[in-house]
Amino acid sequence: MADDTATYDADFTLSANLFTRPGYTFSHWNTEFDNSGTSYADEYEFTPWKIADDLVLYAQWEAIDIDVIYILVGSTQYTSEVAKYDSMLSSAPTAPNRTGYRFLGWYTGVNGSGLAWVFDEFTGTPLTVANGVNLTTESLTLYAYWAMRIPYNVSVVGSYDVNSGANTYESGDVVVVNAGVRAGYTFAGWTVSDGVVLDDASSATASFVMPGKNVSLVANWESGGSNETIELPDLPNILPPPVRPR
Hints:
This protein is mainly β and 246 residues long. It has strands at 12-13, 24-30, 39-40, 45-46, 58-63, 65-73, 76-84, 101-107, 139-148, 151-157, 167-170, 174-178, 185-192, 205-209, 215-223. It folds into three domains: 12-63, no CATH class; 65-148, Listeria-Bacteroides repeat domain (Immunoglobulin-like, Sandwich), CATH 2.60.40; 151-223. Helices cover 0% and strands 37% of the residues. Strands 7-6-9-8 form a four-stranded mixed sheet, with no helix packed on it. The termini are far apart. Mean pLDDT is 91; it is low at 226-233.
C-alpha cells in the first residue's frame, strides 16, 4: 500500500490497512517489527500530528483459529480441537480402537494417503496451507489410518523353555524366542524360515520383527562331549588258596 503524508500540527488519520497474509488477520500497527514499540490501531486519528520525523509502521498479525477434525472411519468424527494457524499440535488425541484393526496414525488423506501428521510442540507438522489446512473453511481434517489385524503363527522346534515364543503374532510385532537349556548339550544357533531376521542367531534368546506370514524356527544343539571317568573302589588283597602237593 502507498505511503501516507502528514502535516505537522494538523489532524491526520492513518489509511486503512490493505495488506493481507494467508492464515492471519491484521491486528494493529507498531513502530517496531517485533511489536516492542508504540502501537496504533488501524485508521488511527492523530489530533493533531505531533511527530517531527518520518514514522515507519509495521503491520502486526494474529493467527486465525483452525478447527482440527479427526475422522475415525468413513465420515464418523472421533474428536476435534481448535489450534492457531502456523502452530504445531503438541500431542495427538488418545489413540482410537477399532475391532479387528490396528491404528497406524493420523493422515491428511484417507487410507494412509497424504501426509502423516507429526505431533510435537517444537518439531511437529505446522498447521499451514501446504500441510492441508483449508483457509476457506479454516479447518484441517485428519483421518485415522487402519491396518487389518491378521494373525500369523510362529512355531519353535527344539526349545527347552516353556516360554519358547511359539504363538500367534501380527505383522510388525517384535517376537522373542527362547531355546532354554538342554542338559549335556550346547546351543548351536537357530535355523529359521525365509522372512525371519534374528537380531542374534547365535544367542539362545533372540528376537525378530514378525513378517506377514507364518514362520518357523528350530533350535539346534551340539552334544557337550564330556567324558565321565568311573573310578572303581579299592579292593582288599585276597591271596589264592595254597596248592597241596599230591
